[in-house]
Design goal:
The chain is an alpha+beta fold. It contains 13 helices and 17 strands. It folds into 2 domains: 281 residues, FAD/NAD(P)-binding domain, CATH 3.50.50; 160 residues, Elongation Factor Tu (Ef-tu), domain 3 (Beta Barrel). Strand 4 and strand 5 form a beta hairpin. Helix 1 runs parallel beside helix 11 and helix 2 runs parallel beside helix 13. The longest helix is centred in the last third of the chain and has 23 residues. The two termini are 21 Å apart. The protein binds flavin-adenine dinucleotide.
């Protein structure tokens, strides 16, 4: 028997995957006895906010993840397709129909026992914890006892990620702060079609005073997301949203994330008036993170305002910035590759709690936790998802990110391993990544179902 705690997206998927293989599951869900701040019903797999499960555009990262889930016979994908509503290129669902479908299907399975109760301590035996971004206080305390006080987070403050191929390198330069300027060469002199040669860890976007003023004024006027009533967000000073810093005064950003000290623009031989630093998001440098640019601007506003930064005029945003209430663990420090806890090997973590972000990413981590919990029950070695698949890419994010300042990720191109062949054509690149992912995933499915 396997215990699953939390009947959200990940817990429902996990329970389904286990029960459909004829293994008994006890699924605990605290709603409707006790609710979270955002859920409204007692249904399993409730969507707490948007009814969109993101893009269905062929070869997009979210499409790849959906294909993989469908190949794994995901109940979440089945319910979504059966309850879809027109939404252009996105997969949107009738939220009530979607959750009801999953609830009824799980309730009808003989191998699942659903118990409506808040769990406050982790039971003995093989257990999957899928209590989500709004994990109850008592369970959060229990988790802290196992993984350590400082390794469970309650908010995330995320900066945007930009596709490296969309940056105008002629306006930027590679340099680390206080690096000797003679070895930093303007990036446009170093660019070739196949390779970007870099001398510093950071790609810098320098701003003149006029450019800074334009950016500053646009940022002050930009539209923001309104916090939800329960999101009384107290972010650390170091995670302050850029627009809040801008409110404090004209120069505050120049003493914070846009400070130019220690940087010399090789084009002018001078320190710029202000600088936005971009840090590589992966070893292959296919994506860059805007350092210190966590924000609550609305997504279209992020595009409008951040494209005023020199070099980012045509920026493609792989991930937008956000700040919200979110319980998640420091996965690189606390999790094994099979999603079990390093300090409690029979306990698996699933869903958003692992450090992924989004409905389907959470579902995916329910699937992987279930596959590995079953293997543990049967005394088999774990089989890890292939590295080039969307699932494997998410797992790599959890395993290989820097534990210091670990931030959740949704599926995006920067998480996939880069291709052996270099192409500037984004559509071809996406197609090749998708084909490789699905081919490997097919083989993985064959192995786990053997
Ligand atoms: C306010 C908010 C809005 C979001 N909006 C979106 C969005 O629009 N799009 C998107 O892709 N993602 C969104 N997310 C992120 C995330 O993808 C979803 O929250 C997703 O539901 C996470 O899946 P999960 O299974 O990990 O957690 P959940 O779906 O939240 O499931 C966890 C379940 O565990 C239960 N539970 C908690 N503690 C206990 C306990 N101690 N004992 C028993 N049961 C317990 C809860 O009642 C809940 O049913 C949002 C998150 C939040 C917090």
């Amino acid at each position: 028997m396997i215990t699953v705690i939390g009947g959200g997206l990940a817990g429902s998927e996990a329970a389904w995957q286990i029960a459909k293989r004829g293994i008994a599951v006890r699924l605990y869900e605290m709603r409707p006895v006790k609710s979270t701040e955002a859920h409204k019903t007692g249904l399993l797999a409730e969507l707490v906010c948007s009814n969109s499960l993101k893009s269905m555009e062929e070869n997009s990262p979210s499409w790849i993840l959906k294909q993989e889930l469908m190949m794994a016979d995901s109940i979440i994908m089945e319910a979504a397709l059966k309850n879809s509503v027109p939404a252009g290129k996105a997969l949107a669902v009738d939220r009530e129909g979607f959750s009801r479908y999953i609830t009824e299907k799980l309730e009808g399975l003989k191998d699942i026992e659903i118990i409506r109760k808040e769990i406050t301590s982790i039971p003995e035996g093989i257990t999957i914890i899928a209590t989500g971004p709004l994990t109850s206080q008592a369970m959060a305390e229990e988790l802290k006892k196992i993984i350590g006080e400082g390794e469970l987070y309650f908010y995330d403050a995320i900066a945007p990620i930009i596709d490296a191929q969309s940056i105008d390198y002629s306006k930027t330069f590679f340099q680390s702060r206080y690096q000797k300027s003679e070895i930093s060469i303007h990036s446009k002199e170093r660019l070739s079609d196949t390779e970007i040669s870099v001398d510093g860890d950071y790609l810098n976007c320098p701003l003149t005073e006029e450019q800074y003023r334009r950016f500053y004024e646009a940022l002050r006027e930009a539209d923001r997301v309104t916090p939800r009533p329960f999101e009384d967000i107290k972010v650390f000073e170091s995670c302050m949203p850029v627009e809040v810093l801008a409110e404090r005064g004209y120069d505050t950003l120049r003493f914070g994330p846009m400070k130019p000290v220690g940087l010399i623009d090789p084009e002018t031989g001078k320190r710029p008036f202000a600088v936005v630093q971009l840090r590589p998001e992966n070893r292959e440098r296919t994506a860059y993170n805007m350092v210190g640019f966590q924000t609550r601007l609305r997504y279209p506003e992020q595009e409008r305002v951040f494209r005023l930064i020199p070099g980012l005029e045509g920026a493609v945003f792989l991930r937008y910035g956000s700040i919200h209430r979110n319980t998640y663990i420091n996965a690189p420090l606390c999790l094994n590759a099979d999603l079990s806890l390093k300090n409690k090997k029979d306990t698996f973590i699933a869903g958003q709690l692992t450090g992924v972000e989004g409905y389907l990413e959470s579902t995916a981590m329910g699937l992987i936790a279930a596959i590995n919990a079953i293997r543990r029950l049967k005394g088999l070695e774990p089989i890890l998802p292939p590295p080039a698949s969307a699932h494997g890419s998410l797992i790599r994010h959890l395993r290989e990110s820097n534990p210091q300042g670990f931030q959740p990720a949704n599926i995006n191109l920067s998480l996939f391993p880069s291709l052996d062949i270099h192409t500037k054509d984004r559509a071809i690149r996406k197609k090749m990544i998708a084909q490789r992912a699905l081919l490997e995933w097919q083989e993985y499915m064959r192995r786990i179902n053997e």
